[in-house]
Amino acid sequence: MSPEACTLSFKDLEKHSSADDCWIAVHSKIYDVTDFLDLHPGGGGIILRYAGKDATAAYDEIHAQGILEETLSSDNFKGLLDQSEVVILPEEQKKDIDKIEKTRGQSTSTENYTKPDLFKLISTHDFEDVAEKTLTTKAWAFYSSAATDLVTHHANSNFYRRIMLRPRVMRNVTDANTQRSILGCTSTAPFFVAPAAMARLAHPDGECAIARGCASEGLIQCISNNASYPLASIVESGTSTQAFFLQLYVNADRPKTTQLLHKARSLGIKAIFVTVDAHVPGKREADERIASENVASAISGSVAGNDKKGGGMGRLMGQYVDKTLSWEDIPWIQETSRLPIVVKGIQSAADAKTAVSYGVKGIMLSNHGGRALDTSQPAILTLLELHRICPEVFDKVEVYLDGGITRGSDILKALCLGATAVGIGRPYLYSLCYGQEGVEHLSQILKDELETSMRLAGITNVDQSHPGLVNTSDLDYLVPNVEEHPWIKWRPKAKM
Amino acid sequence: MSPEACTLSFKDLEKHSSADDCWIAVHSKIYDVTDFLDLHPGGGGIILRYAGKDATAAYDEIHAQGILEETLSSDNFKGLLDQSEVVILPEEQKKDIDKIEKTRGQSTSTENYTKPDLFKLISTHDFEDVAEKTLTTKAWAFYSSAATDLVTHHANSNFYRRIMLRPRVMRNVTDANTQRSILGCTSTAPFFVAPAAMARLAHPDGECAIARGCASEGLIQCISNNASYPLASIVESGTSTQAFFLQLYVNADRPKTTQLLHKARSLGIKAIFVTVDAHVPGKREADERIASENVASAISGSVAGNDKKGGGMGRLMGQYVDKTLSWEDIPWIQETSRLPIVVKGIQSAADAKTAVSYGVKGIMLSNHGGRALDTSQPAILTLLELHRICPEVFDKVEVYLDGGITRGSDILKALCLGATAVGIGRPYLYSLCYGQEGVEHLSQILKDELETSMRLAGITNVDQSHPGLVNTSDLDYLVPNVEEHPWIKWRPKAKM
Amino acid sequence: MSPEACTLSFKDLEKHSSADDCWIAVHSKIYDVTDFLDLHPGGGGIILRYAGKDATAAYDEIHAQGILEETLSSDNFKGLLDQSEVVILPEEQKKDIDKIEKTRGQSTSTENYTKPDLFKLISTHDFEDVAEKTLTTKAWAFYSSAATDLVTHHANSNFYRRIMLRPRVMRNVTDANTQRSILGCTSTAPFFVAPAAMARLAHPDGECAIARGCASEGLIQCISNNASYPLASIVESGTSTQAFFLQLYVNADRPKTTQLLHKARSLGIKAIFVTVDAHVPGKREADERIASENVASAISGSVAGNDKKGGGMGRLMGQYVDKTLSWEDIPWIQETSRLPIVVKGIQSAADAKTAVSYGVKGIMLSNHGGRALDTSQPAILTLLELHRICPEVFDKVEVYLDGGITRGSDILKALCLGATAVGIGRPYLYSLCYGQEGVEHLSQILKDELETSMRLAGITNVDQSHPGLVNTSDLDYLVPNVEEHPWIKWRPKAKM
Amino acid sequence: MSPEACTLSFKDLEKHSSADDCWIAVHSKIYDVTDFLDLHPGGGGIILRYAGKDATAAYDEIHAQGILEETLSSDNFKGLLDQSEVVILPEEQKKDIDKIEKTRGQSTSTENYTKPDLFKLISTHDFEDVAEKTLTTKAWAFYSSAATDLVTHHANSNFYRRIMLRPRVMRNVTDANTQRSILGCTSTAPFFVAPAAMARLAHPDGECAIARGCASEGLIQCISNNASYPLASIVESGTSTQAFFLQLYVNADRPKTTQLLHKARSLGIKAIFVTVDAHVPGKREADERIASENVASAISGSVAGNDKKGGGMGRLMGQYVDKTLSWEDIPWIQETSRLPIVVKGIQSAADAKTAVSYGVKGIMLSNHGGRALDTSQPAILTLLELHRICPEVFDKVEVYLDGGITRGSDILKALCLGATAVGIGRPYLYSLCYGQEGVEHLSQILKDELETSMRLAGITNVDQSHPGLVNTSDLDYLVPNVEEHPWIKWRPKAKM
């Protein structure tokens, strides 16, 4: 990026306001983004709304500063915006900024709601409640939404409620040890931060605050491929001994993925979690409704060329993901990264076996938090399916799961049923309403609940978790016994 | 119809206002309908309300213009209403017209409700919501109502929610093909518009708007036997290459059915869907309550002779249906129509087998949208029953089903379980609140949801749908294994 | 009763206002009821509230005139109340009368509620709704209440919803015949009016209105042992060819039962339904709460000696029932009545077999409308239990059931599962809000629903009902297979 | 405690207001509690709030007078507070006292709520309702709260609703005998008062009122280890022939337990119920939220050193419990007490067998009222599990259970399934809103309901209860068949 940039006026900027010639200003720097419109993971339409304008507020809401300069070449930099000009924001944009501020925690008493002191929060549900009341409508919709009718979303947590515990009493439970090794990395607890995109929507420090919180709590963070900070910034926010995993969406533009994997290796990332359950975006209606509102305002405004179909933040973000991804790509990812590979998004015993046959180090049972395909079965049910159909998998790879885990007792149940660890996603995003401190407080709550559950169940070490401590009878009838349908034979359509 | 009709005054008309001598005016033409009272599918009572009066508004609400002249002979035409006379509508009738206008979409902002822009609707539920708020009370009651306690109506959709999907991951899903052949006709998707009566209640273009929407979307329309437009008008609304099916209620007056089948054949209709699950009208209480209100006003008014029992629009419309219809009539229908026959309304394996034995080309599993016999089992359960008792049926005929399908994932499940296609009924009626555009938008939503579901499940062609992708465990215990009751022996009453 | 009675003043009456010397006036006649206090089925406390006073209003609410003179001897008659005296009712009593009038249908527009025209009622639920809004609080509580937590009460109807129908289509269903023979008596439909006490609470004509309604509808009435009219009055309200059954609570004072049975025989009653599931009163809390209010006012008033425990109308009424009743009493009842005996209240296969072994003609599966022992199993489940454990019962006796039947489809299901007929209780009490006409209208609704259900299920005669038309899978797992507990052995407490 | 105490001024007291030098006044006596801060079962923080102040009100809310002098040595007594000084209560403390008064029943008409007359209460639910409306927020939270998501709390009672009764009819049920022997002690009914802490929160007479109520009702009280009155005071409140049991939490300071057991024996206690399901405190969020409010006010006030984590009353109270307790301690408890031992808190067949092998006299199936580990299985399910896995246990020890029992029919079901007796906990705390009379009235209600249920089920003596009277089919699929998981093998984590 050339340092000797010329100074441009606001009027200069306004001349480049079409899809064929599109400049925007971000933090007083002016960029030509015409060629980038088609490449933007979030779609070109959203950028066009700011063609010829200052896009700083909208940009900051989602991206950290480094990312822009990482993405564009120096040729795109056109100059500095004249600082003497008063930037007059359109009314709508001002409101956006207000909303962003609202989410940033500086002021917590907007609209008669006072964000409670952190120490008063005693469960993940409390964090969710605060998030719903303090995040912008857009951020809340993006974080909390799930696919279509929310059947899987609700089943994800309800299925844990349907597993009963069978505590053993009269054991000496003075000390309780929750420490566990995950892919060879030591964690103070059998859970890690699951990858979740765009943490900046909740707090300006975004993923970096999570990294610092994990450092002080001795936990592992699996960084989202759609993080709002550059990977290096996040890793450097932590300590030198801290372990990180990286989530990977394989990019349709493969060299970008190669570049990312090399960077991951150079930064000391410990494993790659290849996400395979969201190669096409799920239909998250709460998210999409926000988008259709935006489209409406875009249409009624002067910016032309916007896509009439809309599409939520999630749908837009997924556009770069490679839909051709298949098992044959695993060796390439292994070779490129030279890191342990975990396949995240396994939803059947059949695929678990396939994954194992490709030599991955772990599999993560997940339905993407109910955000991809509604009515797909909860991960805890897939865990049971593995025991029915391919129990040997547990001896060959580490098995993780996520989705709907809100309590220490949920974690204990997953461990009893053979999981090495679980991922916690949305709760950590919600905890960011309090920044790093929120991340730490949430971690302590989950550890405390897990410890209490272990002691009350009669064990003192996570390694003592065993299936005899859980009663899964209320789910057993739902567990598939075979890879295909248990009693319906496939009869391909004959030509009639 | 004699062109040289005399002109009659309003007073002339008023003289014929009894059941024995009943004239009405429709669009300034005066007809003697005395002999037609008993033949009116909707019952004579409703006509008698307008004896000696102008019935235009009430007529238009339900019928298209052609139908009246098709039905009556030229002898019934008595003259033209004197145009110089000012027609003074009774207060009640004016309100009726207001309500009709309300449904026609011209004005969408009545009573503080603004009908949203079409592109903001993103699911079938959105269409239902708009319909509830914009249709007349009567039309909403007729479309949305279902039998007695709504048990079947709710089970129809809930049973789809209870089937879980078991997606396979890491498949190349770049292209998704939803095209399917239905009775030899190509459809861009494995669903068609199920027959649903009286579309004019929602939009003045009624079934013709559906026909045009299907044309542009490449879908097949199964035209209702109780359509508000003449069959020819509907077929001619579409394109010459477009495929139509026709629903058939066999008329107690068989020659009428013969005439209809000949007309269908001459119009190029591709198949006849004989409806067999509503030979007597179900008890749809929401619909009947509207009717009892009407009876109340009739009784308190001056028109005598109305049936005290009332009966909803559905009950009245069903009066002409032949209750003697039995399997022995199938050959007659086949011979008369010389078209492929589908039996619509199969609810048991026993009847599926019988239908196959009569050489029909398809069977449609249906409980008439929960509108006929409450607590009858959902079609998706009957589909499972077929696999248990007579799986060979799937090799011999095409199997369709309808009722409660609101999501692309519902369609995918039906296909995985062996259905060739599904019918979508009420949602298309609701989509008519936006006319042809609504039909198209709804079709796009369903295709988009189906495509997304297919890709997320790991398939790219509807022919790849297979039972291993669904987990039906939550319904399996409900599936009958045998034609009769599995463990109770029939003990006919002995004389005691 | 001496005709030459003396005239007594209100002051004379007031002198006898204690438990040791208690006179009351009813319809201007003064009675000494001191000795009767302990014998009153409703307990002495309620009479004592009117000691030395005019009890006409309270008496009329529950009893028909004949009953008092039938019960007391002529010695108890003390004279006529001086008609010249103005009877000044205490305020509370006036309100009682107002409430009674409210229930009597003369005025239906109290408190902004207008009782709808009868023809607008289209289901049993509509009758229940009207009853709730027009009956006195006390009457509604007595009729609608059920034992403790209402688990059985709700299960009674829900279990019918959980049975699915499997209609057979394409049958000629022109004519539908609902006629059935019940204990040799012809009924136009396979249901009868189940015994339900104190119909006068709903209408002054009480059970007589039911009798007349049954006459015109061709249905059988099973008269309650606690009817508010004398048996003879009820029977005489009908026609000479009409069939009646009589419910029997065996009285702890056996000669009274002997007398009743002889009377029944002389009146041409066709069968005796011995009630065996309510030998001690159930705890119907809604009913008891009304009672505790009454006790409260009694205590705060001047009348002493009232029972602090209260007890609802039902509990009081049950006091005369013989708690020693056992199977050994059946032969005595048979010999005394020389009529066919039905045991009403069978709740297990074990007792069904016992009943058969005693030579009864029918058994009625019943949990007393959920009013006796909460969480006892619904009759429809016991019906299934009989098929599992002792199907031969169906060949030996007629089987009836009641409780929770509100739809024609419920009746059809019971028939398919082997019942000869069902009893309808509460709905008929509710229908009395419209007197005899209500009884007829309700009967027509039920017949119409049954006919519609039969036709839509593909049958035309109740004798064609068979188990293959119902899917009971959702209840099958609840059906006991053996008389005792299927897998728990009884281990009587050893002395420890 | 030295009688010749000096008189100290309020100012003298104020000088000792730190954690290192902490005096408080209780009922005009001044104590040095510095060394006791760490030993206080409720934690030192709560005492520090009153350091240098008069703590009488807060003390009285929870403790009876005797307990303080029993706990401290005479050295701790520092003198009498000068009575001439006017004690000026801080505002907050005054409100606390108001709230306490509110709970004491003297005034029942605060805030528009009039506590109903006792005789109007007819079920345990009525008592709960009154308690919710009259107890302080703190007391209600402590009594009514349960662990985390309340899953077990609700299942505890719902599981009883899911067991159906199968009454046998036509039995002579004139007399019903509910008497039962519990550990050799005669009880008028097969239930006893389960141990529940701090009864003074509901009534100033606390556990003594329960003792007197049990005396007049012929019931056994199992006294809580955390009673608000000294053991001797409670025992002496009753009659000399009355039987008591004592709950035991083994103290980490074992000599205290020794002392307690010796005292129990000397007072004639009949059995020791060792509580084993709450060795670490459960997370009762409603309770903890109250605590976090208190912490908030403490932090914003001047008292330093409070624990930021808070912790509800229950969590604080549990701090002294010995977490090392194991089966090996049973012989020591047996020898020390020389009384029959019951292990309370068994939740699996495995532990039931172990308990029997240690020679205990009874086991109590319990999940601590849903207050310990959420989603642990209800006791009634564990009772069924015992029948599946180790039915011989019923021949060797008496089996009790508690949790969620609110009806006489619940008690009957437990008896039918082999329980000797059940414990009733929260309802008795709630009944204390009416003191001793409330305890008696509640007992009568439960006995009456049990008697009614027995008679309606066809039995007249609790010894006739047998499994054939209950239908457990709706729970059977949830009952574990084996000690370990029925189909999942434990695969300990291999090092990978």
From TrEMBL, chains A, B, C, D:
Keywords: Flavoprotein, FMN, Heme, Iron, Metal-binding, Mitochondrion, Oxidoreductase. Residues 5-82 form the Cytochrome b5 heme-binding domain. Pfam families: Cyt-b5, FMN_dh. It comes from Cladonia borealis. This is L-lactate dehydrogenase (cytochrome). Homotetramer. Gene3D superfamilies: Aldolase class I, Cytochrome b5-like heme/steroid binding domain. It is an enzyme of class 1 (oxidoreductase).
